[in-house]
Structures are given as structure tokens and as C-alpha cells.
Amino acid sequence: MKLAGLIVQRFMQLILLLIGISFIVFLSMHIAPGDPASIIGGPTASKADIEAIQENLGLNKPILVQYWDYLKGVFSGDLGFSYQTKQSVTEALTERFPNTLNLAIASIIVAVVIGVAAGIISALKHNSLFDALSTMIALGGISIPNFWLGAVLILIFAVNLQWLPVGGLTDPFWTIEGIKQLILPALTLGTGSAAMIARMSRSAMLEVIRADYVRTARAKGVREKSVIMLHCLRNAMIPVITVIGLNFGFLLGGTIITEQVFAINGVGRLMIESIAARDFPMVQGAVLLVATLFVLVNLIVDIVYAFIDPRISYE
Fold first, then answer.
1. Which of 138, 149, 236, 274 suits 230 as a labelling partner, its CA being 20 to 30 A distant?
2. In the chain, how many domains are there?
3. Any coiled-coil ranges, and where (predicted)?
């Protein structure tokens, strides 16, 4: 299959996947305990008031009818309106998404820089003290929960040392203050990904270093630096890129805890608030956004494969 055919096929799969995800989320929200009409009406609302709210929002219709109405809106570009704020879901996501995107990008940069460097050095210094320490730290990075690490970083660098702000992304990311605000949440969110990338980079480099073509290059007198950069690193990057792509997709959807800890107004925090308020349209819109981005990131990873290794064919 040619690359263009792959892209078309993935987009078709994307549509089917999003329909399935939207149905699961829609059904889950409706069968969960609690009535959004009662939450909207408040404790003083009468039965008639609640019924009027249900009628106005279409919540008294059968679930499948409600889902069909919602799906028609999605395909026409209308994600609905928030039950709580009456704000357009698209508008709310547009306002919140830049913070989530900036956090995810900063986190994946931290993860790639630390993970790839640590993995390559560990492979080159196989069975050394650095390799053992790197492996131990990587296991710790995977095991440490984000909420605990975030709290510890805040306590050390924001409260005790007062080097960095406690939280919030109120300044543009390209300013000094914006960068300072991103450091702690990016370290918190990127640590686990850095550990996984380091483990994969180490394994991939160890496999490539022992390959016949690497021994041949060394036998021909090619400098060690060129052997590592031109022969080893490029071929070892394919599985590493897979892990980086998957982790970036997870970071886009996995910022919920970190955004809560650092009081960042992103999509993850919006999702938590909407779930608590039984705000169906907002939850469904946020989940659809995250799912779409995750699939698109994986498509981009497949395309990057072809540029890194011309031997890969999609036919």
C-alpha cells in the first residue's frame, strides 16, 4: 500500500474509531448515577422544573435517539453547548487546548532529551555503573505517580527554594515567566515517558551495535563517532519513535492529574470538572478531541518511518 493509500485508510479508520468512542462515552455518561437536570436545577428545583430542563435539553428522549441527534451535530461541526455554562463546547475546548498542548509538548521534549540521551549512553556503557543507575532510575520514573512527584517538586522548588512558581499557565509559553511555569509540570508529566524512552533507546542501541554492518564499518576504519551517529542511531530510532509517538498521544490525554496538581486550565481539568457536573456535551467533546489527536499522532509516526528508513514500504 502506498503512503497516500495508508493516509486515506487511516482517516477512514479514524472516523469509525471516533464513532465507536463517542458511543461508548455517550452510553457511559448516561448510565452512570446522577441526573444532570437535577444538578442544573439545584436542590431547590421542583419535579416540574427538572422535567422542564430534561425537555429543553432532550434528556427525556430514548438514549439511542439522543445519541443520533448528537452524532448528527458532530458531523455538522456542532459539539453542542455546556449544560453548566451554556458555552459552546468547541469554544471551551479551543480556549483550554493550548495549555494542554503546550504542557504535552514541553513534557515530550523533556522525555526525549533525557530518555534518548540516557538510553544511548547506557547502551554504549553497557554493564557499567551508569547503566545500572540509569536502569534503576528508569524503573523509579515509571513507578512514581504523577500526583506525588508533582507535590514533591512544588514543595522543593516552589515552596522551599522559591525558584519556580507553584502552578498555573497564565503567561505565554515563549516568555521567561511562561517557561518557568512550564518547568515543574513538564518534569512531572515527562518523567514516566523519559523512563520508557530510555529503556527502549537502550534496548534498540544494544541490538544495533551488535549488528554485522556495524562491525563491518568499524573494520573499515570508520570513526567511532560516525559509526554511532550514522549507522547505529538512525536504525535504532525506529522503535524509539514508536514509543515517543505513543507517549505524546498519552500525554495529550493524560494531563488530567498534572493539570489538577498545578492548577492548569487545560482540557484534562475541564474534563474532570465536567464529569463532576454531569456535563455530557463537554465530556464527550473533550474525549473526542483527545481520541482524534491520539490517532493523528500515530499516523504521523507511520509517515515519519518512511523518511527515516526508506526500506519501509506501505505496499
1. 138
2. 1
3. none
- Partners of 81 in beta bridges: 88
CA distance 142 to 45: 48
Per the listing, cell 457511559 goes with 28
Q: What share of the chain has pLDDT > 90, as a percent? A: 0
Which residue's C-alpha cell is 536502569? 135
* Cβ 37 vs Cβ 280: under 8 Å: no
Burial 85-118 (b: 16+ CB within 10 A, else e): eeebbeebbeebbebbbbbbbbbbebbbebbbeb
How far out from the chain centre does Cα 253 lie?
4
- pLDDT tens figures, 182-224: 888 988 888 888 888 888 888 888 888 877 777 787 787 778 7
Is 124 among the domain residues? yes
> What's at 1, amino acid-wise?
M
CATH code for position 225? 1.10.3720.10
Residue closest to 238 by CA, chosen among 311, 314, 142: 311
